[in-house]
Amino acid sequence: RAFDRALRALPVTQHERIWKLYLPYAKASPVPEAAVRIYKRYLQFDSDAVEEYIDYLMQIGRVSEAALKLAEVLNREGFVSLRGKSRHKLWMELCDLVTKHPDKVGSLRVEAILRSGLKAFTDEAGHLWCALADYFIRQALFEQARDVYEEGLASLLTVRDFSMVFDAYSQFEESLITALIERQAQQQAAADLAAAESGGASAEASKAAAATTLELDMRLERLERLMERRPELLSSVLLRQNPHSVHEWLKRASLFEASPAKAIQTYAAAV
């Protein structure tokens, strides 16, 4: 109340002296809601201090509000960071924030944000494609994540970005295989225990084990196929960089020695 009375009584030119004391008091408050209201009042006095407010929101776990405020900052024309951060840096912070907390930023269109970042910051394409896939992975939407990796590999323009996305893609597939192997071991242990107790494995347990084995075989085949495709995918990246490179076209055709039809298609595309 004393701070409020001081702000009402003093001219605006002296408010800065009050806020220097008021904000630390607000941060120390055991009631986060009160501190948020105080920060909102402070932003009316100094809107450029929004980064400090965003940090406080993250500190108290209000990720959704922090993401919304950061998005608002990026939409503000002429905003200059008091911490010297570029627009690119702020954008990447927003991307990291929304992908790491998908369950807390439902009010934002995360995929649209990341895809707009892909258009605006082509030098961060690899990082952004991985971030978008990670957003789906954290929600257990594995097929969407796989589609994102495939889309990224089909559009990247540099070897650096390709390596980043391909490595993330292969690690993603390996993690799914590891999880399935662990599940298979657990099912086998449970089936052995049930067999020991009842004298035979249940039909339901056998069915679950068979389904896991089938899924594991499928994912192993997918990973093997992905590794086999690496030279072809890398060749596509190099040709997107320079579609007039005769050397790269010849190298690509040599990849299909065992498939004359694909080799012919490659020569036709080169011509």
Your description of this structure?
- This protein is an all-alpha fold and 271 residues long.
- Helices cover 76% and strands 0% of the residues.
- The longest helix is centred in the middle third of the chain and has 40 residues, at 159-198.
- It is flat, with a radius of gyration of 27 Å.
- The protein starts with a helix and ends with a helix.
List keywords for this structure.
13 helices, mainly alpha, flat, 271 residues, 76% helix
Topology:
Blueprint: H1 2-9, H2 15-27, H3 32-45, H4 50-59, H5 63-75, H6 87-100, H7 110-120, H8 125-137, H9 142-153, H10 159-198, H11 203-241, H12 246-254, H13 260-270
Helix pairs in contact: 2-3, 3-4, 4-5, 5-6, 6-7, 6-8, 7-8, 8-9, 8-10, 9-10, 10-11, 11-12, 12-13
* Number of continuous helical runs: 13
Radius of gyration from CA coordinates: 27 Å
Low-confidence stretches: none
Largest sheet: none
Shape type: flat
Q: What is the end-to-end distance?
A: 79 Å
Strand content: under 5%
Please provide the count of β strands: 0
In helices, the fraction of residues equals over 70%
Mean pLDDT: 84
Structural class: mainly alpha
